[in-house]
Every structure is written in C-alpha cells, then in structure tokens.
Amino acid sequence: MKTNTQLQTDMEKIDLSTDIVVIGGGYTGLKAAARISESGYHVILVPQKNIGDFNFSVLDVPSTEIDRIKALEKDVANNSNVEILPASTLTEATGLPGDFTLKFASADAVIEKKAGAIVVATDIAVNPLNHIYGLNPAANVISLSEFENLLASEDAKKAIQTGEKTVAFLVGFAHEGSPLLMKRILNSVSEVVGLDGCSAYVYVNNIKVADDGLERLYKQCRDNGAIYFKLETAPTVTQENDSLTVRFHDPVIRKDIELNPDIIVYEESMIADEANLSLAEILRIDQGPMGFLQKENVHRLPVNSNREGIFVVGSSREVQSLSKSWSDVDNMVLRVKQFIGDGTKSISAKAVVDREKCVTCLTCYRCCPHGAISWDDKAIISPIACQGCGICASECPMDAIQIVDFTDDEMAERIKAATSVAAANTPKIVAFCCQNSAYEAGMTAKTFNYPLPAGLELIKVPCAGKIDIHHILNALVEGADGVLVLACHHGNCKSESGNTYAKWRINDAYRKLEEIGIEKDCLEFQTLASNMASDFARIVIDMEKRISQKKE
Amino acid sequence: MEPKNVMIIGGGIAGMAAAWELAEAGLHVDLVEKSGFLGGHAIGYTCKATSECLQCGACSVEKMLKDVVGNDKINVRLSTEIETIEKNNGYSVKLKKSAAFIDGKKCTNCGICYDKLKENEIIMQGYSKNNVPLYAINPEKIDENKIALKEVCPEGAIFVSDKASHEDLTADAIVVATGFDPFNPERKATYGYAKFPNVISGLDLERIKRQNGFPARPSDGKAAQKIAFIQCVGSRDENLGNLWCSQVCCPYALRTAESLKYKNPDLDITIFYMDIQNTGKSFPAFYESCKNDIRFIRNIPVDIFPAENDNLNMRLFDEAQGISVMEPFDLVILSTGIMPNSGNEKLSAQMGIALDEDGFFKNSDELNKTSTSNDAIFIAGTAQGPKTIAASMAHAGQAASGVLNYLGVNK
Fold it and tell me: Which of A27, A139, A192, B76 fits as disulfide partner to A200, beta carbons 3.0 to 4.6 Å?
C-alpha cells in the first residue's frame, strides 16, 4: 500500500521526427506538401495515383485559377524539401505518434520511412447515378462529368448551340447530394441558358444552396430562362432511340406534364476514395459515415483523427470544394506545428503501467481509442499519444494501470470525502462527472445559483470511461444514497467510446445490485453537454426527490 | 525579438478560435469585443442532443471560451470598440472603452448589481461561467442609470464616467471577426413578430429553452404542443434583396425539432421550407429520421393570423384535395437568417478592405476565403458570409494560419 496516493511522473524529453508523410497527390495533397514544407518540415509525399490527376470542375475550381493550381505540381516537384514516392501504397504502419514507421510498396520495392505525423489527403471519386433513374448511357443521355467535358470543348459547345438543344438535368432524386454537386449543375445550367436558342430544364428535389454565392447563381439561371421543377419524386424518363420523354406530376397545377428534351444530364454522387478503407485499417483511425475518414464528433473538427499525429484533410473526411479542402490544409498546418514543434517535446505521462501486475493480455491495446498503447513483454503507454481518458485503467482486469491525478487510491479518498460531507436529513448524492461535459455543466449550475441538492458532491473524472464499477459500488458502500454517472452524449465523447464503457459498467452495477437485493434506482446514468446546466440541475434534483420520497 | 502582436476584432466564436490558435503559436493577441461578453451569438445556443449528439457544435463554443479566458497570451478587451486604425509600420489602433463597465479584476460575481437593477435592464447576465465577470452593462441604458450604477456595487467594481476612455495598441496583423446580425423578423410584417406573443425567433426559443428547459409559450408559459418552424425568414428572399442561404437555419430547425421531440414525443412539429439543406456527413440518415418525426411542408407561409387563445393560424395547401385550409399552431418559430453586421461598412472604410455585394467582407482570393486585398488583414467567420459554428471555427483556423504565414512564424 502506498503511503502517498499521488502518482508522480517525471517530465520526459521526447524526440519527434520532423518528417511528415502526406498521402494523396491530388491538389489537396500537393497543397498540404507545399504548406508543410513552408513551415520548415521535410515532406514525404505519397501520391497514390498520378499527381494532380483530377477533374477541376468536380472541385469547384474557378477557370481563372486553374493555371495557378497546376503550377503547384511543378512547385512541389521542384521543392527540395519534398520527397515524392511515386506509385506507392501504404502497407504497414507501426510505431507511435511522433515516431511512426511506415512501409510503402511500389511495383518493385518496399520502402520504409519514418514520420512524426501523417496527413491523409485522399480525393473524392465520382459515381454516375443513371441506374437509379433507369437510364442507359447514350450520346444524348450523359453524366454531369461528361456534360462538363462537352462544355469545355468549343466544338461540342458549338454543336449544342447550333442544334438549339434543350437540356434536362436530373438532380437530387438519386441521393441527397451537396452544395458542391448543386454548384456543378448550376454552372452547367448557366452555360446552357447562355447559348442562344438553347434551354435548360432542371428536375430537382432539394436545391442545395448552402454555400457562398449559390442562391445568387440559382436566381441568375432562372432570370436567364432556366426552368426548375421542384419535385418530391423523380420524373419518369423514357428513352426510345433518339427520342427522350420526361413525365411528371406537377403538384401545384395538379396536372401530368410531359417534355421532350434533346439531352438528359443525370447527376453523380461524389463518394469517398476507396483507398480510405485500407488507410483507416492500417493507420488505426476511425471511419465516418459513407466511407469518409473521421467520425462525426465535434471534437475532431476540422482535421483531427482519433489518433494524435494523424490528420485528415479535404475530401478524405467530407465532400468538399477545393477552397474548403485548402482551408483544411491550413488548419492541419497549425496542428502539425502544435504537435511536432521543433522536434522535441517535454511531456509527463498521464497513465502508468505497473509492470509487475501487467500480464500482457492486451485488453488496454484493444480498448484504447487513441491508439496509444504498444507492448514489448508488457504494455507500454505512449505519453505523447495518451489523452489520459482512463478507459484502459478501468478495463484492465489486473488493475495494472493508474491514471495521474485519478489513481484508484485518490478516487477512493475522494469518494470517502464526498460521502462523509455532513448533510443532515438530506440525501447524499455523489455525481461522477466527465470533466469535458457534466462537470462543466455542474459548475455552471453552481456558479449561476441553480437550486441544487444540499447533499450533492461532484467527483471529476477525465472521461466517463474512467468510472470503474468499483467506484460506483464503493460510493454506495460509503453511504451515498444516490450515485449518478454523467457522461457525454453518444457521438460527443472526446475518447469516442468512454461514454459507452461507462454505460456498460452501469449495467454491470445494476446486475450486481440486483444480486444483492438493492433497488437500482439509487444509481442513474445520464448524458449531458457542458452547456446543459439547467438539465444538470433537473437531473440531480429529480434524484434527490426520488430518494427523499422513498425515505419517508 | 519582440513577440508579434495581432488584433482580433470581435470575440464571437470565430474571433475566439483565431485568438486561441495564434496564442498557441506564441503570438500575443488583443481580442477586442464591443459587448460585455465573449462568445457572440454562438454562446447563446443550447445543446441539441437527443439520445445522441447531433453535432450542432454549441458545446465547442463553451470550451473555446474557457480556453481563451485561460490563455495568458490573449488580452481580452470587453466593452471596447475600434475608434481609428492607422497604417504605419504595422497598425496603430485607437480603442474606445465604454463609459461604464465592470472591472473583471474587482468583480466577485456576487450578482448584487444584477439582482438590484434587474428591472432597469442595465445589467445583463452572460451565459458562460467562464466569462469573467458573469455580468455586463447594457450600453444602451447607461445614461439613465449612471447614478444607480455608481452606487450598486459593494466592491467598487463598476466603473462609470462621463465619457468613454481611450486606449492605444499596435498590431502587426488584424483578423476581422465581427460576425453577423440576426435578421430582424419585424421586417416581415405579415408574420406578426413582436405583435403576436407566440411568434418567436430561433434566438428567442434558445433563451426560452435555457430558462425553462422546454418550449414555453411566451403568452402563458405553458408548454407548446403544436409547433411550426418557418424557414428562410430573411434568407433567400428576392424582395428583401437577400440573395443568400444562411446555411445554419435548416440544421438549426431540424436539430431543434428532433431534440424537442426526443424530450417530448407527443409534440406535433411542422417545418415549412423551400429546400432542406444538409446538416453534415450523416445527413441522409438524419433526414430520414427527421421525416419520421416531423411533418415537412414545402411552402413558406405568407401570413400568420391570430386565433383564439393566442394561437396562430396558417394557410396550408392540401395536395390531396387541391385546396388550401387553415390550420392552428400554438407556437411559431421563425428561422431567422444571417445578415451582414451593421458595422461592416464603417470598418471596411476604416481599414480599406472591400465588402461584397451583400455587405459581407469580400475575400480577395477565391481559393482562400480569409484573404483580403491587404496582406496583413484576414477575415474569420460569418463576417465573410453565413457559416455554422464548426465552419466558423475552421475558417478562423485558416485565418490564423494565414497570419502566421504572413508574419513568418514557423515551427
């Protein structure tokens, strides 16, 4: 038994590699390489595909800017601080943030590189959606990308004009789409209505105008003669030889309408790069919705992954225009500078493994949401990658991990102190509060004098995932009439799954209470955000009321 | 070498985020905010979570405010406005501090001033416990309350003088983060805002929710049962000349409706809309769940008519019958849009940087929306155009990155 319950850890000086790997050679990857090297780091650029191999219209690049963007390719190629590994794919990533070891396979070799940080800058892919409309691609039934290519060719454009073509656009029925897709459609519509004798019909569900300048573009097209049909369901389209028919029911005039366009342009989905899947697996970073990297969690925005030292930018994390992707790049540069600095860092451990107790079961390795754990013959926690959430400490079956400032002994002392507070005739309520959410909400409730139970004591934890079943039962044994476990909402946990672990442990505790024959309403799990002081107050007051009523 | 100094105009979410990033990079920051509080409009928003987080980002504002207040490289100057900006070697700025303010060093947050002068509306209470002091003086009510103000504080923390005081500072670079003005719904007279008690704006609903925890009707304090949201109030409106989508109101209405419905499944909620805008990466799945819980009507009502019991009637088009019918609601929420800050013109003239045709600050580079025609001046957040909280923070990060690049601050 330790006499001093505090766990002291020394400041440790750690060297970090100042080489930064950028995966993805599109214009976001190139920009990332350029900006990182400007900040004084050596860049290893792994383009995956051909450098700069991308359709500009897809990224919403103004035609006036294309030359400037293309110049990036040359600049990066001539930059002595950027090393390019052509036609290579990432096959293995080991080591820890600040000191990753990466293996890349090319056709004839495997190259190993060290890196302090990794930036994933994959691009979007484009997928035609004709099948959803039951359309067969033909000379007069084409995808948006194909139509954009036609408009880019003067000859093809002239042919459309001299033919006085009527062009029908189908968008928003095959999928929800995005402002970026809508901008591409509207840019094409704008060109069509600008050609004498040509007309444009846009069959659309929700017009996605939530980006700069889009509502104005939408209106300009309308003023120039474009006709929009806003429908809830897709029109019926028939293709017979060269003749096209679009039929739909107009809900306003309550009539069926039929039109015969010369050309049908169908929408595309803009989807995540298929390389994301293997990158996520190899780098042990979370995947988000629809194959993009980065889960929906406000703590990750804009460019963080769940692991220190690995950043996701541009369309690797969401469908984004080039200007937004480059905004990501600028944000990433801030994070890289903050993380790598000049290549050395003084840091003290937030979690410590007792090597005597550790049996190398690797429970910690599996449950760590930050990828901070490795092992030799025993588990090792990287001080630089560890966020101190304490999920590992609570999951460890050998109790071999202690969290600085939140050791088991310290927690026991705090529980004892919280339950020994004299509160005559009022229920003693112990609330375990995540420091990121409920603790903030509780302190706000106190600061603004919300009515709170006299017998309420808050115990701060680094993450709800640090709340052991022991702590919960211990609080009850020590005399708490009620115990609350207050975590972040699902999808808002900084450690992604701390709240889920807390919920599981509560369920375990319920089972134990049932076995002993104690009613389980003395224990409650709730989720809160830092700005929910009034909800915090309501939850604790409700618990006090419930307990008081039972005591009577 | 002296550390570089950056002035940030506006202490809303974008200004705070830019300040924090620059301070993290080692620069000294003067964060100038004209009101008595940090956090701007964003700090007033409540959490929209159901059983799960709906990614509204309101909690990140609270966190950022805490980080900014706790950072000793950031000098927060509340109740302060820009008087003049002069370009020389960098910028010389003359600041004007309000004639009455609360000294954060002396204030003990006892709340006596607020309790005693509540009825005069001279003292305002902030939203965040981290905003020190918790209270501020309402600049519009200073003149008629000078005597009361001088006497109320037992700590002598309230400073009152006959005229504003001045301070000077120098800056090597400037970030303009002046935010937006909410659209004043009284301009759409047929909606009866400020006339019918139960027609409120989204911002009003936030205040009501914070106070009561549920959507209480202003007329009688009772929980509303049948609620309507009207989208695009002030946005996408040709008649008003507002040719922009405010980008935040669909996410606001959808998340709010879902979170109200989660707390009270019996609520009957209708959203009147033109086009539903996306909320984020998982929008398709989220929108599907919204469609199960909420009635969507693709039509923006023109009029709101008073009905008995302070209810409100709106005309709906019944597609099945092809006729329009009147339907009563007991609370109508106007999703008011984002307008350019009314101070933009003055500031743009003072700094010699342009506004766009809508009155927002114009970015000079299409591929970098924080850029201005002046290399030392950057735009952050809704000063440039409508943005969500998350987008404002990312934009502010980009502005900070631009500042560091401009000042040559590397690793």
Answer: A192
